[in-house]
Design brief:
By secondary structure, the protein is α/β, with parallel strands linked by helices. The protein is built from 6 helices and 8 strands, in the order βββαβαβαβαβααβ. The protein has one domain: Response regulator (Rossmann fold, 3-Layer(aba) Sandwich). Helices cover 40% and strands 19% of the residues. The longest helix is centred in the N-terminal third of the chain and has 13 residues.
């Protein structure tokens, strides 16, 4: 995605090399500049050295948990939109409470991921601030394919 003459930068944090590479390939095809990171420390170094427009963050990470990385990243860059991308179940309320921009469960629905990325990159600062303050904002939640949105008990 290009706004002005600048390609938007997406920091992809995932310890699985295949996931990083597939996301990098697909997002590069959509004209995003992808900065891959295999762990939280690498991601924090990249985010400190290079302004990024959005983060895709896996929660299952070695050494530091994804939520620890989220806390550090958003503490240092509070307006940075973060999409939680995980195979870990039951993260919806944690993601909402933490101020994440979206939660998408693996396996990913790539068209939905792209739509969410574009929405969050274009999102006004006031909406991001409202999310950080705990006020209701648009939030994209995509459960894993084939999973029901709500568990119905009969």
């Amino acid at each position: 995605m290009i706004i002005g003459n600048m390609r938007k930068k997406i920091l992809v944090i995932d310890d699985d090399a295949a996931v990083r590479e597939s996301l990098a390939c697909a997002l590069s095809y959509e004209n995003f500049l992808v900065l891959p990171a295999a762990d939280g420390e690498e991601a924090l170094k990249i985010a400190s050295a290079t302004p990024v427009d959005l983060v895709l963050l896996d929660l299952n990470m070695p050494v530091k948990s994804g939520w620890d990385i989220f806390e550090r990243l958003t503490g240092e860059h509070p307006l940075l939109p973060v999409i939680i991308v995980t195979a870990r179940p039951n993260q919806l309320f944690t993601a909402l409470g933490a101020g994440a921009g979206a939660l998408m469960e693996k396996p990913l629905d790539f068209p939905e991921l792209l739509r969410t990325i574009r929405r969050l990159i274009a999102e006004p600062t006031g909406v991001r601030l409202a999310r950080l303050a705990g006020r209701p904002t648009e939030f994209d939640y995509r459960p894993a394919r084939g999973e029901p949105l709500v568990d119905k008990k009969e």
